[in-house]
Amino acid sequence: MRFRLTPRETSFYDMFAASADNIVTGSKLLMELLGAEPSARAEIAERMRAAEHAGDDATHAIFHQLNSSFITPFDREDIYSLASSLDDIMDFMEEAVDLVVLYNIEELPKGVEQQIEVLARAAELTAEAMPNLRTMANLTEYWIEVNRLENQADQIHRKLLAHLFNGKYDAIEVLKLKQVVDVLEEAADAFEHVANTVETIAVKES
Questions:
Q1: DSSP 8-state assignment for residue 133
Q2: Buried b (16+ CB within 10 A) or exposed e, 138-176
Q3: What is the pTM of this model?
Q4: pLDDT exceeds 80 at position 5
Q5: Contact 89/130 with Cβ under 8 angstroms?
Q6: Stretch among 3-17, 107-121, 134-148 having the lowest mean pLDDT
Q7: Is the pLDDT at 10 greater than 70, yes or no?
Q8: Which residues, in sequence order, are CB contacts of 150 under 8 Å at separation 6+?
Q9: What DSSP character marks residue 166?
Q10: Which residue of 13, 30, 163, 204 sits 20 to 30 Å from the alpha carbon of 81, by its own alpha carbon?
């Protein structure tokens, strides 16, 4: 770790941890959506929307703290990037749930459960990693595993697209389902962006 002569603002660590914990909440709502009857999905979407608003509040709190702090625990641009990428994850998960409800999708295609399982695992790893920003310890396995999960998500996404275009679905249904699986893929990408930012921070601080 780089030696510092000045104190650092430590509340950022707690705010990043809270933001990541909220993402775990969002991933659990995605899992709940999988097993829910279509009639129950609107209520799940409402809870997801509330979680997304909580995520926005957490992000704004980080930005406010960043703008009012003279000393920060690491580079300002990295704090901004990490907060923004965490916020993106929640936005994409909320969008996926909302699309399922708005499009009145009766049955999600086989493979979506694998997408969501990957997101749930990435959420758990991210929540576990955020407190370690205090010491920059035990983070290497985190970003390696999240990158592996993102590669797995890419493979699942490609298989889903092949399934959607195999002629089983009509054109309108393909458009609806493709948008949902594409947004879930964007969530996986956002998890990788978070992991890459953490890696960048750790390298700078070493």
A1: G
A2: ebeebbeebeebbebbeebbeebbeebeeeebeeebbeb
A3: 0.92
A4: no
A5: no
A6: 3-17
A7: no
A8: 122, 188, 189, 191, 192
A9: S
A10: 30
In this structure, what token pair is assigned to residue 144? 């390696």
Q: Which residue has the tokens 């703008």?
A: 67
To the nearest 10 degrees (0 to 180), the angle between helices 76-102 and 171-205 is 160
Which of these, 144, 112, 146, lies nearest to 35 by C-alpha position?
A: 112
- State which amino acid sits at residue 154: D
Q: Which domains does the chain have, with CATH numbers?
A: 10-203 (1.20.58.220)
Sign (positive or negative) of CA dihedral 141, 142, 143, 148: positive
DSSP string covering the chain, please? ----SS----HHHHHHHHHHHHHHHHHHHHHHHHHS-GGGHHHHHHHHHHHHHHHHHHHHHHHHHHHH-SS-SS-HHHHHHHHHHHHHHHHHHHHHHHHHHHTT-SSPPTTHHHHHHHHHHHHHHHHHHGGGGGTT-S-HHHHHHHHHHHHHHHHHHHHHHHHHTSSSS-HHHHHHHHHHHHHHHHHHHHHHHHHHHHHHHHHHH-
Structure tokens at 89: 């994850």
* Residue 205: band (very low, low, confident or very high) from pLDDT cuts 50, 70, 90: confident
